[in-house]
Amino acid sequence: MVSSNSSTSIRDASPAPRSLETLVSHLVASKRSLSSIEHVWRANEIVTSTRIHLEASVITSALTSFLEAGITTQLHTLERVHAHSKAIANEGAEEYGEVLRTFDAADKRLRGTLESLRTTMFEHALRPESDGRKSLLDFVDEGGVDKLLAAVEESACAAKEGHAELVDTNTGFHNDLKRIRNTIDDSEASSHRPSIRGLTGGFHSDGLPGSPIPDILHSMENRAKDMADNLESLVKHFDLCVTAIKHTEGGGDAAQHLTDDLPNGMAVGQEIASSPPEPISDQEREEMLEVLANDADQVEEVLTEIRDHISEMEALFDNVTIYIAQLNKEHSNVLQAFRGLEALEGRLQAFVAQSQVFVMRWDDEKIKINERMDELESLGDFYSGYLNAYDNLLVEIGRRQFMEQQMEKVLQDATRKLETLHEEDSMRREAFKNDYGDFLPVDIWPGLTNPPLRFETRPVNSTEKVPDISKSVIQRAIRRVEGKV
Questions:
Q1: 268: DSSP letter
Q2: pTM for the full model?
Q3: 3 to 163, 239, 302: CA distances (angstroms)
Q4: CA pair distance 361, 300, nearest whole angstrom
Q5: Burial letters for 208-226: b for 16+ Cβ neighbours within 10 Å, e otherwise?
Q6: I need a labelling partner for 396 at 20 to 30 A (CA). Which of 118, 432, 436, 475 fits?
């Protein structure tokens, strides 16, 4: 008959029914089968809805793809801007670290020098006893050192704060970029998921990632057509049942009664039931009854096929609904990413300005730090020179002590020789007087009787005596000056 896939021939049918009761039972079953029109209507609704979803999905996919492409391009640009700002921050961090290392080294050297000044005590012989015990550091103003170190630390802290602000800004910008990138990546990944590509239930003809709806729609249309063909077969079978009953004795009233209350939208059989039967031969009636018997056996098979088709279409439509929901979610995510990108680009100028402000601020602080570092180095050199000069003072005192000792030795030797010469001269003068004094007139040379010339050795200027520093102290100073300790 009836089924579009049925190949059963009326020639193979069972013997044709003869009783009115059998024909009525076939008509009742046929009338009941006409309720499958609801499945056909539902199939039409599904096809229409799927077609609407297809049109909407094409627009949504195009908009999503367009936005994704634009957002991806903008993200590449913003990521390059972020990379540049991050490079500035990294370079600033390296320079800041180098400045700190230089400052720490200079500070360590200076504090080491100050500690040496603190532990180096003035020798008692160099200062009045009323001064008490004092170190070299007592003659240094440490307040200047503290102020200088505080100024360097202040500039370093200002630079650190500026760098921290830039790092925080970079981190926030990076996190915003990452959120937008993840949204786009998730959207692109979801469009290539097997769960989306496989929604066609095996009907995706080209096998490429993309919308499954065209293949699903094609499959639905084929099933809907099969269901319409099957329904048409059921209608023809119903008409045939009515005709057979009309041509059976006593069947007119039954046919008229059974063609009432048909499913909504189903207007068949009434015209045949209400009109008088057309005359047919016994042979024609026999053939009609044989076809009727054959078709009656296939009614349930046709109904099963209609139900299977509508079940398959409902399942496919569920897949379409899932795909559309996923597509709308992807589009919503892309819109969210677009709004995030708009907000991020609104802060772009401030972000770039932050990098420029950091560079200018850091350059200013570097100049200040370098100037103060130079002062720190100069101060350290001065204090080192002060310590070294004190050691050389001790060495100088030792040298002067040695020279005084040498001069006193020479003086003592010269005094001794002069005394010896004086005594010798006195003895010779006395001997000359004894030998020739009586013969020479007294006024021949007034200086003849004068005593010998006597010399006195004394300093010609008044100079403070060299301090009495022990040899051990002087020797240690010599070793320090010569770098031996």
A1: -
A2: 0.60
A3: 81, 16, 5
A4: 89
A5: eeebbbbbbbebbeebbeb
A6: 118
Site of tokens 């009432």: 260
**Any idea what DSSP says for residue 251?**
-
CA distance 32 to 41: 16
Measured between alpha carbons, how far is residue 465 from residues 16, 132, 287, 412, 457 in Å? 160, 21, 161, 18, 17
CA distance 393 to 115: 20
Burial of 234 (0-12, 13-18, 19+ CB in 10 A): buried
Q: Residue 423 and residue 429: Cα distance in Å, rounded?
A: 10
Model confidence pLDDT, tens digit, residues 10-27: 334 344 445 676 776 666
Backbone angles phi, psi at 121, to 5 degrees: -95, 145
Nearest-angstrom CA–CA distance, 237 and 239: 5
**Contact in structure between 31 and 262 (CB atoms under 8 Å):** yes
Residues composing the chain: 485
Q: What is the pLDDT of residues 58-80, one digit of tens each?
A: 999 899 889 989 998 988 988 89
User: How many separate helices (H) and strands (E) can be counted in the chain?
Assistant: 10, 0
